């Protein structure tokens, strides 16, 4: 019988026990590439145990019994690492993973290891019986594996991980946590559930994964040993079974979260840990709205530092120490505290005193700042030493390189920076008195080139300094020094923040001083292909590179990718300087790894409209989008070339979904977007990304154009050419621009009514057969008295049928104008009365607009811990907003084929209404709220308003206060009945409407999942 985790367990012994008890239990899902095709292979505990035995016998064959030399393993990042490490433990020999990292001159005896297939497919059944002790008591202090420290506390150095050290990982499952709380360490929460493992297995986190998977019987999916592009990651997350959780570096998360496809793939995780470096606030907020995100604390020397899962998901970047684990926070000044570990009476949880058994105190050097209002939470602020942690988690010590540069006679002080950046930069304070008048800063940079090159030899490859990233201190602001003469890095960084920020937004002319970049003489495809080839050749220091050569097979590394991205981005911007949204990212290069593909992408940017994103590469589009795009490419050359549409209000909530639906329609060959702002393209991209719509539709076609328009001005505020272009080309107008404000009177909507009249005049003056679609509101007909059997038909009603509010009244007046115009024109006029729109139809595609009444009610109910049992006269005939947009565009197309020129009104409403009480139990559970009457709920809201001065956060946590008159109206109107909304016309022109189902619990659950990130603590 094996030992328990309380006593201490040996991972290699436990492996054999599990292999015997549960031979088919999954240990790892392993990748394999064959002819460019990715396949997956299951590795069971029995297969791993046999592989370990095979390698143990092989090690004994290479070394005599008394030869206890330490073994080093260097190889491809595959499961042979695990087998070799465990085999060394079994033979009683320690192993060093990646011993020679950074070393070039060592005399070593080497042996090639068998292939992965030979080790794991072999049917060898001869078990290895260790001659060394196999009890934990005997082996607790023996070395199990030797790894290198990350270099956080100085130069990288070997760290001996004993079996006792590894046992602390195992024993963490018995460390008490406060009642009602959970460990932040997902390996404890998700025991037995598939883990995603990305990163080198020779690092601390790789060894942890190897051992935790045995201790907790938790399988992992190992990522392929190649760059984790968005496309590859999406492919991984689409496998069955898909990983449920993982531990990733911030650098990888930043890359993946930059694109819609990456965020969609990440959202398939239930939860994620991250560590190793800070994560940007922007990325963290995005991810925490999609899944449970929590940072972790750990290091090679100390193992895990136990923390609790923060109660508020918005505290994803804070740490709360487990009170059962002994540690101490030492105040070091400037509001910062250092994490230290005093030696406890028992070291069963403290790995650091297994790796450093002679110490009585371990000072981590890690600095933290307490949360401003939650004193138990701590935010990581950096290190107390000079170590630089790049954004990809790589660490370097710049001291020796700085001293070398500082020894130059023209240099007074030198400081290397790069914290949270992808690459380093150098700040130099010149010896001004030694500089003659012939020296300007460019000359000085060239003069210091040789010493910078020499200093780069002291830095790791990922930390070398490009001359483009060298800046100089001013005479007026010398570098700040401590009394001991050392650099005050934080103070210097603050003083030169603007200069550093500008440095990381390079211009091609300054990209790399000393490098002669080729000039781009034209923007046709052949010019771009030749230019990209030359740039890649310069970066790789090669004579040439083929158009179809894979640049990663040619040897480009991650830092060279950064240089290439900078060149490509600067070139794109030089053609379109006004388009700030023209961006390149590392992921785009990984997804277009040839000169031809890169040239094709930049060609699309230059000849498009300057809007781009990570989604711009066709290889990472969804299957449906690729096929639709291909159809559009061919359809535009058929017949007369398709339809031209003008859309107002495209950047709004419904407008964005309408635009997305139009762009996915192959028959639409051009769309003119008329918006109030001058940066419509940028706003549209932001709106698409926020709603998780496929933003490549904004970039991959030349059919989209944005114009700033003032609809109530002559010619819509457009120049003559633009106005004439719209008048002569547009086939369909969709007028969706209307401010949603229920508190303003009718008079305040006068500019909108004038704008509608101007648009109708434009339609009248067109020589084309123009269809005009006005997006109205169902509120234009909800103010009239009703009876239980009342039906509101799709026809024009009296203006007084509108609700008594300026918004509804203005829409009613607008409908009357459309009706009058329809009698005076041959154009087809349509009115779309839009009912209540909910969030989109999928959990990962945006969310219900938080400013709307339902999200406001839900968040307020969560705060007040009570939810109304009724909505008064309202019924639930709601539509998902993306489905509503599809209905509208379907009607627009169907109406185009209608021979009638009569005014037609459509109700955009769910034809299968239900009642609020259907969802009350579900919502009450999600909000942890008591079910009360609507009157009581509104009274509670009114009480909060009356005491608002003592509720400073009520406006954010109780947003229903903004809509109190609306909720009071519902409470006062409970005795009235809601009429049936007729949808006959809509059904006639939209086949999709008949397929719509009732809003049920599953639909509501989707909306709740979307709102979870906005409502902290929502139980869903």
TrEMBL record:
Keywords: Phosphopantetheine, Phosphoprotein. SUPFAM superfamilies: Acetyl-CoA synthetase-like, ACP-like, NAD(P)-binding Rossmann-fold domains. The lineage of its organism: Eukaryota, Fungi, Dikarya, Ascomycota, Pezizomycotina. GO terms for biological process: secondary metabolite biosynthetic process. InterPro entries: ACP-like_sf, Adenylate-forming_Reductase, AMP-binding_CS, AMP-dep_synth/lig_dom, ANL_N_sf, FAR_NAD-bd, NAD(P)-bd_dom_sf, PP-bd_ACP. Signal peptide: none annotated. This is Carrier domain-containing protein. Residues 523-606 form the Carrier domain. It comes from Penicillium oxalicum (strain 114-2 / CGMCC 5302) (Penicillium decumbens). It comes from the Eukaryota.
């Amino acid at each position: 019988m094996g030992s328990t985790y309380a006593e201490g367990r040996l991972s290699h012994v436990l492996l054999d026990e599990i292999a015997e008890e549960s031979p088919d239990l999954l240990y790892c899902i392993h990748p394999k590439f064959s002819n460019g095709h990715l396949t997956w292979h299951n590795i069971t505990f029995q297969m791993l145990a046999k592989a370990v035995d095979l390698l143990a016998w092989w090690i004994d064959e290479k070394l005599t019994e008394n030869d206890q030399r330490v073994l080093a393993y260097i190889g491809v990042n595959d499961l042979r690492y695990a087998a070799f490490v465990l085999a060394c433990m079994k033979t009683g020999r320690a192993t060093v993973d990646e011993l020679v990292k950074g070393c070039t001159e060592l005399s070593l005896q080497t042996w090639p290891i068998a292939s992965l297939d030979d080790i794991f497919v072999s049917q060898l059944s001869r078990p290895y019986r260790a001659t060394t002790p196999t009890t934990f008591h005997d082996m607790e202090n023996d070395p199990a594996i030797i790894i290198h420290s990350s270099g956080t506390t100085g130069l990288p150095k070997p760290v001996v991980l004993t079996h006792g050290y590894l046992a602390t990982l195992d024993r963490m499952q018995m460390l008490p946590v406060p009642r009602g709380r959970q460990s932040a360490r997902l390996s404890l929460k998700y025991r037995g559930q598939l883990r995603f493992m990305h990163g080198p297995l020779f690092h601390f986190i790789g060894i942890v994964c190897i051992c935790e998977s045995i201790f907790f019987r938790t399988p992992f999916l190992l990522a392929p040993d190649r760059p984790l592009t968005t496309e590859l990651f999406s492919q991984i997350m689409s496998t069955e079974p898909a990983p449920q959780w993982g531990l990733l570096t911030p650098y990888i998360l930043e890359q993946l979260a930059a694109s819609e496809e990456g965020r969609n793939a990440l959202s398939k995780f239930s939860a994620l840990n991250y560590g190793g470096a800070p994560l940007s606030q922007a990325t963290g907020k995005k991810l925490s709205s999609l899944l449970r995100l929590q940072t972790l604390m750990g290091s090679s020397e100390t193992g895990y530092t136990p923390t609790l899962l923060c109660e508020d998901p918005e505290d994803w970047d804070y740490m709360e120490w487990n009170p059962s684990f002994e540690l101490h926070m030492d105040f070091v000044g400037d509001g910062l505290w250092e994490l230290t570990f005093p030696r406890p009476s028992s070291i069963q949880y403290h790995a650091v005193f297994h790796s450093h058994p002679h110490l009585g105190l371990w000072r981590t050097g890690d600095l933290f700042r307490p949360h401003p209002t939650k004193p138990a939470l701590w935010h990581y602020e950096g290190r107390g030493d000079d170590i630089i942690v790049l954004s990809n988690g790589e660490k370097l010590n710049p001291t020796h390189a700085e001293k070398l540069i500082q020894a130059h006679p023209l240099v007074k002080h030198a400081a290397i920076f790069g914290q949270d950046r992808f690459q380093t930069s150098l700040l130099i304070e010149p010896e001004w008195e030694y500089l003659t008048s012939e020296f300007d800063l460019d000359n000085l940079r060239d003069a210091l080139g040789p010493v910078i090159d020499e200093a780069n030899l002291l830095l790791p490859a990922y930390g070398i300094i490009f001359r483009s990233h060298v800046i100089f201190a001013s005479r007026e602001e010398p570098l700040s020094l401590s009394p001991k003469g050392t650099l005050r890095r934080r103070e210097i960084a603050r003083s030169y923040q603007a200069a550093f920020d500008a440095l990381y937004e390079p211009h091609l002319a300054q990209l790399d001083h000393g490098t002669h970049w080729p000039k781009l003489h034209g923007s046709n495809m052949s010019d771009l292909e030749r230019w990209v080839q030359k740039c890649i050749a310069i970066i790789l220091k090669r004579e040439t590179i083929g158009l179809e050569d894979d640049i990663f097979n040619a040897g480009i590394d991650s830092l060279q990718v950064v240089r290439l991205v900078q060149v490509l981005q600067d070139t794109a911007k030089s053609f379109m300087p006004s388009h700030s949204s023209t961006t390149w990212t590392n992921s785009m290069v990984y997804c277009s790894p040839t000169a031809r593909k890169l040239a094709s992408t930049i060609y699309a940017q230059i000849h498009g409209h300057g809007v781009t994103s990570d989604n711009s590469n066709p290889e990472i589009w969804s299957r449906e989008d690729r096929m639709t795009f291909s159809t559009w490419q061919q359809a535009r050359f058929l017949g007369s070339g398709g339809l031209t549409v003008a859309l107002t209000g495209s950047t709004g909530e419904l407008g964005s979904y309408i635009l997305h639906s139009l762009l996915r329609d192959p028959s639409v060959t051009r769309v003119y977007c008329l918006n109030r702002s001058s940066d419509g393209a940028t706003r549209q991209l932001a709106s698409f990304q926020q709603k998780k719509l496929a933003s490549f539709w904004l970039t991959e076609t030349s059919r989209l154009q944005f114009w700033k328009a003032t609809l109530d001005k002559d010619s819509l505020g457009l120049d003559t050419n633009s106005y004439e272009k719209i008048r002569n080309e547009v086939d369909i107008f969709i007028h969706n621009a209307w401010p949603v404000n229920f508190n303003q009177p009718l008079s305040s909507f006068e500019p909108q009514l004038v704008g509608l009249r101007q648009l109708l005049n434009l339609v009248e003056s067109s020589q084309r057969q123009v269809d005009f679609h006005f997006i109205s509101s169902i509120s234009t007909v909800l103010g009239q008295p009703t009876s239980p059997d009342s039906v509101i038909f799709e026809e024009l009603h009296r203006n007084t049928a509108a609700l008594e509010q300026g918004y509804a009244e203005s829409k009613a007046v607008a409908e009357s104008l459309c009706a009058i115009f329809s009698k005076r024109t041959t154009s087809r006029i349509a009115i779309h009365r839009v009912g209540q729109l909910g969030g989109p139809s999928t959990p990962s595609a945006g969310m219900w607009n938080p400013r709307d009444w339902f999200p406001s009610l839900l968040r307020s109910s969560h705060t007040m811990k009570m939810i109304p049992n009724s909505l008064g006269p309202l019924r639930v005939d709601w539509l998902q907003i993306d489905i509503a947009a599809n209905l509208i565009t379907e009607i627009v197309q169907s109406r185009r084929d209608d021979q009638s020129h009569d005014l037609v009104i459509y109700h955009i409403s769910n034809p299968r209404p239900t009642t609020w009480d259907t969802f009350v139990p579900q919502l009450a559970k999600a909000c942890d709220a008591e079910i009360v009457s609507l009157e009581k709920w509104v009274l509670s809201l009114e009480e909060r308003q009356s005491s608002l001065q003592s509720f400073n956060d009520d406006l954010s946590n109780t947003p229903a206060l903004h809509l109190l008159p609306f909720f009071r109206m519902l409470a006062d109107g409970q005795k009235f009945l809601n009429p049936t909304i007729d949808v006959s016309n809509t059904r006639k022109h939209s086949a999709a409407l008949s397929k719509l189902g009732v809003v049920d619990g599953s639909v509501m659950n989707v909306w709740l999942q979307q709102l979870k990130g906005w409502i902290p603590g929502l139980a869903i």
